[in-house]
Write a structure and sequence with these properties.
By secondary structure, this protein is an alpha+beta fold. Helix content is 44%, strand content 16%. A hairpin with a 3-residue loop joins strand 2 (68-76) and strand 3 (80-87).
């Protein structure tokens, strides 16, 4: 702003030095008048800029949906945006997921959004993210409120700290198996299990509490109801790095065993720091799942015991009938491993060391005194 004010004055001086007529005008009062006018303009512009910024902050502070005040945006994705929010009466922090405004006219997206809410809200397992509320604003923006999770998703943990010790992976996987078991018993297939959709959180003083989230691609597989298929015909759903062969080839309908494959691919990544298959394009990766042999985990990480490797490779069998048939079967196999247990003491120590990557103070401009500390981006693939 100051440069915009000074530039005309400097220009006038330079012109006055070259043109006598202009110089005479400047030094007989023209320059003083110009300075006064420009100073007034600059003051007005600066105040206007400050006022606009202030109004923007006030508008954001006042922005809310239902009984929730939005504090700051903490995540974004293909379906929507995620905000750190607070219930106006309970003063409870939560995460609010909004449908993207530019997607609001897409009926397919709205159906997916509602599907995610309804599917997740019907699950009560402690290792599934909890839904508090759901609705839409007068302007037509859809939203739902869910529990706010202090922690990191497993994708972030591996990216920042490297592969996880086997005992910790087993500890987290068994929790996810338990959450999946409830969903499968209700006839729901997740279809997008991946490290970014599993959160390791602190809940009630316990660390490494696994939370399964983002049921945006969930499929209702219950026989008494019509299947909810919200993707385009022929489209591959899920994430290419973790999708099952049958999803790629179309050989049979994806079922609970497809989730087992994706969980096995997730475990492979957690233990090795590498996905099962890599490629230059998503197409090459998904077809590798259907046609290429899996590289043994111990060739990448020799610390993995053969028994655990065998369990993960069974999850990654090409044919669904060769995998574990239920999440409970996978959990039981993991339980039988002769590994030392991952303890709460170890988990607490790990999170204490990692705190700098997880917790930070919320923006004082937006945060209320009652707010808990904000954490890293909530891993909801909006």
């Amino acid at each position: 702003m100051s440069l915009m004010v000074i530039s005309p004055i400097v220009g006038a001086f330079m012109t006055g030095m070259k043109v006598p007529a202009v110089s005479e005008v400047l030094y007989t009062g023209g320059l003083s008048e110009m300075i006064i006018l420009l100073s007034i303009a600059a003051s007005t512009a600066i105040y206007g800029s400050y006022r606009v910024g202030s109004l923007r902050r006030e508008a954001f502070d006042a922005k809310g949906v239902g009984m929730y005040t939005l504090r700051k945006q903490i995540g974004t994705g293909g379906m929507g945006e995620v905000y750190l929010a607070e219930h106006r009466l309970l003063k409870r922090p939560c995460a609010i997921k909004l449908i993207r405004r530019d997607k609001v006219d897409d009926e397919n997206i709205l159906l997916r959004f509602e599907s995610e809410v309804q599917a997740t809200a019907g699950l009560t397992h402690p290792n599934t993210i909890e839904i508090y509320d759901y609705g839409h604003t007068e302007e037509g923006t859809f939203y739902y409120a869910m529990e706010f999770l202090p922690g990191l998703n497993l994708q972030e943990i591996v990216e920042r700290f490297g592969e996880l010790p086997p005992e910790r992976v087993v500890y987290l996987l068994r929790q996810v198996c338990s959450a999946l078991a409830e969903a499968h018993h209700k006839g729901l297939i997740h279809r997008d299990i991946k490290p970014g959709n599993i959160f390791s959180a602190e809940r009630g003083g316990l660390y490494d509490v696994a939370k399964l989230l983002d049921f945006g691609l969930v499929k209702d597989n219950r026989p008494e109801k019509n299947s909810l298929e919200l993707t385009m015909e022929g489209a591959v759903v899920g994430s290419p790095l973790y999708t099952s062969p049958e999803v790629v080839t179309g050989d049979g309908e994806p079922d609970f065993r497809s989730d087992i494959y994706s969980l096995g691919a997730t475990a492979y990544y957690l233990l090795t720091g590498k996905p099962v298959f890599e490629g230059e394009s998503a197409l090459k990766v998904v077809f590798a799942h259907a046609s290429q042999a899996v590289k043994p985990l111990t060739e990448i990480n020799p610390k993995i015991c053969k028994e655990l490797e065998a369990i993960i490779l069974k999850c990654l069998e090409k044919k669904p009938e060769d995998r574990y048939q239920k999440a409970e079967e996978l959990s039981d196999a993991l339980k039988e491993l002769k590994l030392k247990e991952w303890t709460q003491e170890e988990a607490a120590e790990w999170w204490s060391d990692a705190e700098q990557f997880v917790q930070h103070e919320p923006d004082p401009e937006y945060a209320s005194e009652d707010h808990l500390k904000a954490t890293t981006i909530l891993p909801v693939n909006a």
